[in-house]
Design goal:
Distance between the termini: 88 Å
Pfam family, one: LRR_6
Number of helices: 13
Helix content: 25-40%
Mean pLDDT: 88
Order of helices and strands: HEHEHEHEHEHEHEHEHEHEHEHEHE
Strand content: 5-15%
CATH class of the largest domain: Alpha Beta
Number of strands: 13
Strand order of the largest sheet: 4-5-6-7-8-9
Keywords: Leucine-rich repeat, Repeat
Shape: elongated
Oligomer: single chain
């Protein structure tokens, strides 16, 4: 029986179920594709087939919405040796079918449609495979909440495919694309999905993805267009340029935005940043000048500051350490930190310290770094 593309409503499905329960029913194939069937209808069909297990061998429900439990109720029947059901079609797209096949045969996942979390990290996924997974995520029979794609060789085209998923109002809430060379071009593709009002993603991780200031601006623009969903954004290990941090940090202060957690720094640098911020009373990542002349940082505090200075999210231009207790060893560590992130600091003031010439000479190495912008050393 082929009832594809019929508007059955609950009443129509109920009548079909009554027929399926009848012991004299010998129907073997039932096609109900694109019939606006709901979770309640899936449960009714499962119940009918349990009542009379001896006839139906093929059921097509592609293009419908099974809700949270519809897939499991019917999939369980395939495992029942007393039930004749052998073919259960749920996925409309051939690409989605291929994704399911890959997850079943390669990753040995028994029923991918029952997954809530999928970790494909460190698997080299070609664009074709990402497109297939994106097709699966767009099907209402897929209820995946968390997708991890760390270090998968994702490309700009991969970002386009996943942006389509974000626009489709899928069940996906947590997406990790860290350690992929997405660059700003990839982020701009994601922007097309994030700014869509259908997007309900809550957590996005883009750590170490070669994103620069332009990419940060694209993300800020996307969240301004659609402020109600994303609550956590991880951008550790990227380079925000001069304005990237502020562009996104401003969103945290606005009550109209859902964003609550914005990660720029790794755990050690984040702890250090909070420590120094607590001392100076201002967000260190938003400062261009830091004057610690009147503060006694000590060796511990200086080490915390050095940890933050090494991160590209720190954009200090001027650092004043007058009258501090800085030692020659502290100078060596500070110079190493500035050499690892040399493109911002233009002035370093150590006048009033007890350093000898040997201590000051340590900083002369900075001028040998071609990327160093240091112009004043006092």
């Amino acid at each position: 029986m082929n009832l594809n593309n019929s508007r059955l409503l609950d009443s129509g499905v109920k009548e079909i179920c009554e027929g399926l329960k009848n012991p004299v029913c010998e129907l073997e194939i039932l096609k109900l594709s694109n019939c606006s069937i709901t979770e309640e209808d899936y449960l009714a069909l499962a119940s009918a087939l349990r009542s009379n297990r001896s006839h139906l061998t093929e059921l097509d429900l592609t293009g419908n919405d099974p809700g949270q439990s519809g897939v499991k109720e019917l999939s369980d029947l395939l495992q029942d040796p007393d039930c004749q059901l052998k073919t259960l079609r749920l996925l409309q797209s051939p690409d989605a079918e291929e994704a399911c096949k890959y997850l079943t045969e390669v990753l040995h996942i028994k029923n991918p449609l029952l997954l809530r979390e999928l970790n494909l990290s460190e698997r080299e996924l070609e664009d074709t495979r990402v497109n297939q997974i994106a097709a699966l995520l767009q099907d209402k029979h897929c209820k995946l909440n968390t997708l991890m794609l760390r270090k998968c060789g994702l490309t700009e085209e991969s970002c386009s495919a996943l942006a389509t998923v974000l626009r489709s109002n899928s069940s996906l809430k947590d997406l990790d694309m860290s350690n992929n060379n997405l660059q700003d071009s990839g982020v701009k593709k994601l922007q097309n999905g994030l700014e869509n009002t259908n997007c309900t993603l809550q957590k996005l991780r883009l750590s170490d993805c070669s994103i620069t200031e332009e990419g940060y601006k694209a993300l800020a623009s996307a969240l301004r267009s659609n402020p109600s969903h994303l609550i956590e954004l991880d951008l550790t290990g990227n380079d925000p340029g001069q304005s990237g941090v502020k562009q996104l940090s401003d969103l945290l202060q606005d009550p109209d935005y859902s964003l609550k957690t914005l990660r720029f720094l790794g755990p050690a640098a984040d702890e250090a940043c909070q420590y120094v911020t607590g001392i100076v009373g201002k967000n260190l990542l938003l400062l261009r000048e830091l004057n610690l002349s009147e503060l006694k940082l000590g060796h511990y505090g200086l080490m915390k500051l050095i940890t933050v200075l090494q991160d590209k999210h720190c954009k200090l231009n001027t650092l004043i350490l007058n009258n501090s207790d800085i030692t020659e060893e502290d100078c060596r560590l500070l110079a190493e930190a500035l050499n690892s992130n040399p493109s911002n600091l233009t002035e370093l003031n150590l006048s009033g310290t007890k350093l000898r010439n040997s201590g000051m000479k340590i900083f002369s190495t900075l001028f040998k770094n071609e990327q160093c912008r240091l112009k004043k050393l006092k």
